Amino acid sequence: MAVVGRQNQLEYFLQGSVGKDSVNTLLHRLRGLCDGASRQFATFGDHEMVYTLGSPSSSVSFRVRHSLDDAKKPWQLRYVGQSEMGDKSRSTLLRSCVEVSTSDNLTTFLKELGFKYESEYVLKGYYFVKGHMRITVSQVCRVVNVGDPQSAQPISESYLVEISLMTTVQKDTLAEEIKAFAELLKPLVHLEKIDHRKLLIT
After folding, report:
1. Among 47, 65, 147, 180, which has the highest number of CB atoms less than 10 A from its own CB?
2. What is the C-alpha R_g of the chain?
3. Those residues with Cβ within 8 angstroms of residue 188's Cβ, 6 or more apart along the chain or in another chain
4. Do 4 and 102 touch, CB atoms closer than 8 A?
5. Closest by Cα among 158, 142, 164 to 47
6. Would you tell me how many other CB atoms lie within 10 Å of the CB of residue 98?
7. pLDDT tens for residues 142-172?
8. Pairing mode of beta strands 152-154, 3-18
9. Nearest Cα residue to 178 out of 14, 63, 22, 10
10. Alpha-carbon distance 189 to 24, whole Å?
11. CB atoms within 10 A of CB 23
């Protein structure tokens, strides 16, 4: 496996959802608020697989992501830390994120190390940029046939909305920047600090 580059970062983020009936209105509002407002909506499609090593009580998980829109882009090996709710004064969630760009034999490499395939999904949608912030509006799709992203089907008609900002140094004033932008999207979507530990995924 060839390693292209590595990034150790912290990610501030908020999440929410919007129904199918409101998504076009939200996209047009984002187009007006974000950079490059005169361009067409930028779309993306990502296939992400989760590989785990260890026992259920003590394991480590890595995410393998690659673009479905551009086969020339390097694959990404990602480690995403547990989301920190933080103290009540922080306006967003915070988590560590390590990303390594690799060659396309990444899954074979992980299997040789003993990692086991756990799950996979596809994200399809739109993205916007506002300064250092990245805003995505996407559908989460379940992969029906293992390893075949073309078999992906939306799990619901709702769209996941996320505002995130990557940084190398913890600076909680960045959370306020995200919160202020999120306020501009109300009442179309309410972006919140979601405690993922309380979510039950079936």
Report:
1. 47
2. 17
3. 18, 22, 25, 26, 29
4. yes
5. 142
6. 14
7. 999 999 999 999 999 999 999 999 999 888 8
8. unpaired
9. 14
10. 12
11. 21
**101-125: average pLDDT:** 95
Residue for token pair 């989760």: 50
Contact 191, 14 (CB under 8 A): yes
Residues 160, 17: contact at Cβ < 8 Å?
A: yes
Tell me which DSSP letter residue 111 carries.
H
> Is the distance from CB of 57 to CB of 47 less than 8 angstroms?
no
List all residues 6 or more positions away from 89 whose beta carbon is below 8 Å from its beta carbon: none
Look up residue 151 and give its two tokens: 């078999």
pLDDT-based confidence at residue 3 (cuts at 50, 70, 90): low
Q: For residues 101 and 3, what is the distance between their CA atoms, to the nearest angstrom? A: 6
Lowest mean pLDDT among 1-15, 40-54, 55-69, 93-107: 1-15
**Between vectors from CA 126 to CA 123 and to CA 95, what angle results, nearest 5°?**
60
**Nearest residue to 20 (alpha-carbon basis) of 133, 200, 160:** 160
Whether residue 174 contacts residue 130, with contact meaning beta carbons closer than 8 Å, is answered with no
Helices assigned H by DSSP within the chain: 23-33, 106-112, 173-183
